[in-house]
Each structure stands twice: as C-alpha cells, then as structure tokens.
Design a protein that fits this description.
Distance between the termini: 22 Å
Number of strands: 15
Number of helices: 2
Structural class: mainly beta
Strand order of the largest sheet: 1-2-3-4-5-6-7-8-9-10-11
Helix content: under 10%
Order of helices and strands: EEEEEEEEEEEEEHHEE
Radius of gyration: 21 Å
C-alpha cells in the first residue's frame, strides 16, 4: 500500500532493513446505503536493522461516495540518540454540504538526544466556494540549555480578496500587513519559504471516490457473513 493523490508530502526515513513487519488494517466498503457508502484503507509498517536503526510508518484513508475524504500519515525514525517524527493529514467535506471546506496540516519535530529539539507545523483551511481561506503555522526550537525560540505566522484571505499576513517571534520580529492583490499557496512568510507547494485548487483532487473504487477491486470482492467473518466472492 501507499499514499495516493495530492496534498501530502512524503518524508525520509527509508532504507534497507534487516528486520521488518507490515500489517494492513481492516478495510471495508459499506454499500447498504449509497449515502453512507465508503472505503477505508490503512497500513502499519515497522523496520529495524542490525545496527539498531528504526523506522515506523502508519497511514490511513477514508473515501465516501458523497465526496468527503480523510487521510493521515505518521512517520518516525531513530538512530542511536537521534530521533524524528512527521505527521500529515487532510480532511474534505462532502461536495454538496453547506459551507464545505478542506483542511490540510502537518507537524514535524526532531531531537538530537543531547537536549536540543526543533520542529515546524502548519495548517490550511479553505472554503469550497473560494470565498475565504486561512493558514497558520509555527517554527520552534529548544536548546540543550533550555532556551526557547519560536516564530508563529498566519495568513487569511477574506471574501473581498484582501490578504492579511501577520506573525511574531520570541526574538522580537513582528509583522501585520494587508494586501489587496491575489495570493497563491506558495507564498513566502517574512522572507522564509514555509515549505508548502501549490497543488492547485484544494478541492480539485486527482484522487477521490472513483479512483478509490477502481483501486479496491479485491477489497470490494470480500463478503461479510452474518457471523462477521470474511469470505471472498
């Protein structure tokens, strides 16, 4: 298994492993009611080589006939006293729901094993009708001696198209500006790229319900009897 579709970026942590296990989670397609029909899939993978390096990945996704979807990924790795973690997720409302919106988020952090930690996270929210959007994020660091630093930022686009960008940091940075020109998803904040990509309109996903059904032939061939046991058609 693996992640499909846009909106989620993959991180590192791979490599050849001496010992590994992989387990696909239960998945189902409930066709009793077209309005509730859905497909759920997931996997949990873990590996460790003879030198002690570890890697772990979990992903889960759900697609509904209505157009709603949820996807999430968690990855982590460890080598000696160094470790890292990364999470991504997105959620989209049904196409015809009032005030339908989409949410995308990520959270990354790491530590070097001697007291220093650092991380970065952001979240984006979009309205399906394009009337507004909001983005917020934070970059932070904690030193070995306990000293802390962080920068938080935000960006909102109102119904009139006006963009507000604001933020501050513990080192004294501060900004709050208004811009009447149109903005893109690949804007930079305070002169620093926030590692986001312009993946197109948030609801124009190249992978949705039709694609999930097409890729779930074996899954949809499984029947559940009255005792809850699975049997293939």
């Amino acid at each position: 298994g693996g992640k499909r579709g846009g909106g989620l970026k993959s991180g590192g942590g791979g490599g050849r492993a001496g010992t590994s296990r992989e387990q696909d989670s239960d998945a189902n397609a409930n066709a009793d009611d077209d309005d509730n029909e859905r497909i759920e899939r997931g996997a949990d993978k873990w590996a460790r080589d003879k030198t002690g390096k570890e890697w772990h990945e979990k992903w889960w996704e759900k697609f509904e006939r209505t157009g709603a979807s949820e996807r999430s990924v968690e990855k982590s790795g460890r080598q000696g006293i160094q470790a890292w973690w990364e999470k991504w997720g997105e959620q989209r409302d049904p196409a015809g729901s009032p005030n339908a919106s989409a949410i995308k988020w990520t959270d990354k952090w790491a530590e070097n094993g001697v007291g220093t930690r650092w991380g970065d996270k952001w979240e984006e929210r979009f309205r399906r009708d394009g009337s507004s959007s909001k983005k917020v994020g934070e970059t932070w660091r904690v030193g070995a001696g306990g000293e802390r630093w962080s920068r938080t930022w935000g960006e909102t686009v109102g119904e009139n198209g006006q963009t507000r960008k604001y933020g501050k940091s513990t080192s004294g940075e501060r900004w709050d500006t208004l811009d009447d020109s149109s903005s893109t998803q690949s804007e930079t904040v305070s002169g620093k790229n926030d590692d986001r990509q312009n993946d197109g309109a948030p609801f124009d996903d190249v992978y949705g319900w039709p694609e999930a059904v097409k890729d779930s032939t074996k899954l949809l061939a499984i029947e559940i009897n009255r005792d809850g046991e699975k049997k293939e058609k």
